[in-house]
Specification:
With 93 residues, the chain is mainly α. It has one domain. The chain is 34% helix and 4% strand. It contains 3 helices and 2 strands. Strands 1-2 form a two-stranded antiparallel sheet.
Length: 93
């Protein structure tokens, strides 16, 4: 089983990262995941036919960026979740 610890730190001179881990053993292997804030960039609209002509890797990258940009909205505004379990028959009744 993997245990998760959460730390916040800053990048040091020389682009180095320092984390003090007093509860770990010397030589112990750990996984490090780095999550950074991405600057808010206004998305450029793209023509659908031009989008479909892009290589699949580029399309995935663009869709991933758009999903990450939309995530804070859906985390803060949870009203959309009320519609997940709506019975359509109730709406038309």
């Amino acid at each position: 089983m993997k245990e998760t610890c959460y730390f916040t730190t800053t990048i040091q001179a020389g682009n180095r990262l320092e984390i003090d881990l007093p509860n770990f053993s010397i030589g112990q292997t750990v996984e490090v995941i780095i999550i950074t804030e991405t600057p808010n960039v206004d998305p450029q609209p793209i023509d659908r036919s031009a989008f479909l002509k892009l290589p699949i890797a580029d399309r995935h990258r663009i869709l991933e960026q758009q999903a990450e940009a939309a995530l804070p909205h859906y985390q803060q505004d949870t009203e959309w979740q009320e519609w997940l379990n709506v019975d359509i028959a109730e709406i038309h009744a």
